[in-house]
Each structure stands twice: as C-alpha cells, then as structure tokens.
C-alpha cells in the first residue's frame, strides 16, 4: 500500500495511537509520524520502543507541518488539547479524534479549529482493556468498524482521504450522526462496561465472605466481566461524564428489564423467563447468521469449517 499522508501527528500515545502508528508503519501509509503525550514517562517509553519517527516534548511541535493530526487522549482532555494545538495547525490539515463519545468531543474541539482546517470526528470500535504506549498492535483495527461523524459541510475530499487511511489500516468505515452514535454506543459499549464494573464490585464484596471462591471458580462470562472492568479508569470516567444522558437513558431501561426478570424469578414464572431467554438467543443467532460477528464460532455457515 502507499503513502496517504506526508506527516501524521499523534497526540496521546496509548493503545489507540500506538496501534495506529504500528498499522501505518506496517503499510507505509505515512511519510513521517510524530507523537506527543503529556507525561514525560510516556514520551520516554515511546522513544525507547521507537513508536514514532519523532517524539516531541510539546503538542505544538508535534502538529507543526502535519497534514493529519489525531487526538487520541481521554475524551475529557480533547478540548484542552485542541486549544493548545490550534495556533500551530497547518492550513488544509485534517484533525480527527478517536474518542468513544462524539457530541461532547465536537462541542469541546470544534470551536478551536481554525478556518481552512478540516475537523472529522471518528471512533474506532476496537480496543482492549490495556492502555499506554506499549499496548498498541498493528492488527487492532482489522475487520473492525471505524465510525466517522463529520459535520454538515465538511470537505468530502478530506473525508475520503481519512476513510482511505482507515481502510488501509484494515478497518471498515461508516458515517453516523454524532447524537445517534452516542446512543448506539451507550447501548453496545458504555452501559455494558458499567454493568461489568458493577458486577465485579458485587463479586468483590462477596469474595470476602466466600474466601476467594468467586474468582477461583469463575466461568467464562464472569472472566469477561473482570477483563472489561480492568479497563483504564480515566478513559471510562470520561466516557460516562461525557455521554451522560444516553447512558442514563439506557441504564434506566436496563433497570426496568432487570426488575421484570427479578419479579419472574420471585414469582417462579418459568414461562416468562424461558420466553425472554428464547428471544435473546434468537437475537444472537440472527447476528451470527447475518455474518456480523467475525469473532463468533462458525456454526456450520462455511462448508468444511470447524464448528
Ligand atoms: N481503549 C479502548 O479500547 C478504546 C479507546 N478509545 C478512545 O481513544 C482515546 C484514547 O484511548 P486509549 O488509547 O485507550 O488511552 P490510553 O490511556 O492508552 O492513552 C491515552 C494517552 O493520552 C495521554 N494523555 C492524557 N491526557 C493528555 C493530555 N491532556 N495531553 C496529551 N496527552 C494526554 C496519556 O499520557 C496516554 O499516552 C480515548 O478517548 C478513548 O475513549 C476508542 C476506542 C477503543
Ligand atoms: O475491550 C473491549 O471489549 C472493548 O469494548 C473495547 C472498546 C472500548 C471502548 C470503545 O470505545 C471501543 C472499544
């Protein structure tokens, strides 16, 4: 594959920026990659592992002359970073971000973007529970969605160029309205993370009573909860504070459903439980049959594939 941007600046050098650096280097998509992180320790680590071509001590230095700037910091830090880099952005450059929330980032970053610079908010739907400059890997985005939420009137050429970079890193792009993005992600990612955090908290209380049994004998479902609950606390604090309404809406609905099931258990209403679980099983099977879960076992869709 070939060069798409001459100079890419990565602000924030964690899992996502690191994975982008590896993916861009693997395929020669950027002429030069500069990087900056707020903490000296992170910059030192990034230098030590050769994450970028140049690690800069200031964000201003990193973005100077860049034709693509990627904001890869926690959602709550996006506005301050945008204010800091704004006077140093090159005319015609594109600024994108990778934040898990879109409307709040647009509100915080948008006002700082100078005329003649394209701002194209984005969100890769790919990640792990690991963070920091050593966490990134080139294949993170492969076969994953990367949503863009461009504002009306954004230069289509700039959006196509960024989409080209994302596709070259192996991801699939789609476009969405920011408010809709935030609602969809509240259902599919933000509320589930909060539920995982809560469930691990509950088990932690119980563990004191049951002498470590909960963790020792935990089956796969609970292990997944503990993996998710090990995610970066700063990042997730910011997600909930900046997608407050949608997350509270979904958690309200979740609580109502939970009470329905709780009552069915109390009343011994096996039929209601069975019907509910049959519906959710059909939803999961529908997702797999539509080929929308690339991680799922094959279930005989492909002739000759192992089940
Ligand atoms: N971790 C995940 O699974 C995913 C994260 N995201 C989003 O990507 C963004 C980055 O997340 P990760 O790479 O996972 O985080 P990370 O915690 O691995 O890295 C964040 C980096 O930002 C730096 N930083 C923090 N505040 C800063 C500031 N004010 N100025 C400069 N640097 C600063 C930190 O030093 C660190 O290098 C977040 O907005 C997050 O919501 C998006 C998709 C998946
Ligand atoms: O590790 C997991 O299971 C994730 O869900 C990763 C993830 C976290 C945050 C995002 O905004 C997108 C993806």
Automatic annotation (TrEMBL):
Prephenate/arogenate dehydrogenase domain ranges (all copies): 6-295
EC numbers on record: 1.3.1.12
Coiled coil: none
Enzyme class: oxidoreductase
Swiss-Prot/TrEMBL keywords: Amino-acid biosynthesis, Aromatic amino acid biosynthesis, NAD, Oxidoreductase, Tyrosine biosynthesis
Catalytic activity: prephenate + NAD(+) = 3-(4-hydroxyphenyl)pyruvate + CO2 + NADH
InterPro entries named among the record's database cross-references: 6-PGluconate_DH-like_C_sf, NAD(P)-bd_dom_sf, PDH_C, PDH_N, Preph/Arog_dehydrog, Prephen_DH
Pathway where this protein functions: Amino-acid biosynthesis; L-tyrosine biosynthesis; (4-hydroxyphenyl)pyruvate from prephenate (NAD(+) route): step 1/1
GO MF annotations, alphabetized: NAD+ binding; prephenate dehydrogenase (NAD+) activity; prephenate dehydrogenase (NADP+) activity
Gene3D superfamilies according to UniProt: 6-phosphogluconate dehydrogenase C-terminal like domain, NAD(P)-binding Rossmann-like Domain
Presence of keyword Transcription: no
Gene Ontology biological-process entries: tyrosine biosynthetic process
PANTHER family to which the protein is assigned, alphabetical: PREPHENATE DEHYDROGENASE, PREPHENATE DEHYDROGENASE [NADP(+)]
Family: Belongs to the prephenate/arogenate dehydrogenase family.
Name listed for the protein in its UniProt record: prephenate dehydrogenase
